[in-house]
Amino acid sequence: MTAEVLTANLQPVEPAYRNALRLRAAIFWGPVLVGALVLDRLVLADTAVGGLVPALVALLGLGGVVVGPNRVYRRLGYAIDGRLLRIARGWLFHTDTIVPFVRVQHIDVTEGPVDKLFGIATLVVHTAGTHNSIVTLPGLSPTRAADIREAIRSEIRADSE
């Protein structure tokens, strides 16, 4: 299946989410590459595989920083349909989650340091039950996340009255 089929009728998240994913990947792969360089210098320098480990780590890291975020971004989408929130994600393992508003216990909007840097937020929906009781939707603008939170809140209030 193509990304277009998987995310049909879904709204994309903010394009800045790709850059946040890139920065997070670089933060992960940077120390791994430094570790590979140190290992190579101290242990593998005089062996037949000297230089191979850092080269492989650099190649993997480059893929993780350049290719991975685009794939994640293209396959993440959401839709609000009446009394449901649908979130579809995944390029290796596809997940399509539907959250009925009546099951929502509470809703959070979170922003970490990387999120603030790129002007994005994550909507966190806590539901009744144990399996998938916390559903996240990253990569929204803070305003959009707050709007979705308020829409769900008003729907919950209308159900309780």
Q: In CATH, what is the class of the largest domain? A: Mainly Beta
How many angstroms does the end-to-end distance come to? 43 Å
Number of helices: 5
Residue stretches low in confidence (pLDDT < 50, at least 5 long) are 1-7
Main attributes of the structure:
161 residues; PH-domain like; disordered N terminus; 7 strands; alpha+beta
Break the fold down into its secondary structure elements and pairings:
Layout: H1 3-6, E1 11-12, H2 16-44, H3 52-74, E2 77-81, E3 84-89, E4 95-100, E5 104-110, H4 113-118, E6 121-127, E7 134-140, H5 142-160
Antiparallel strand pairs: 1-2, 2-3, 3-4, 5-6, 6-7
Helix pairs in contact: 2-3
Kindly summarize this structure in a few lines:
The protein is 50% helix and 25% strand.
Could you explain how this protein is built, in words?
- The chain is an alpha+beta fold.
- The chain has 2 domains: 10-74; 77-160, Pleckstrin-homology domain (PH domain)/Phosphotyrosine-binding domain (PTB) (PH-domain like), CATH 2.30.29.
- The protein contains 5 helices and 7 strands, in the order αβααββββαββα.
- The strands form 2 sheets. The protein has a 4-stranded antiparallel beta sheet with strand order 1-2-3-4.
- A hairpin with a 5-residue loop joins strand 3 (84-89) and strand 4 (95-100).
- Helix 2 (16-44) packs antiparallel against helix 3.
- The radius of gyration is 20 Å and the shape is elongated.
- The chain starts with a helix and ends with a helix.
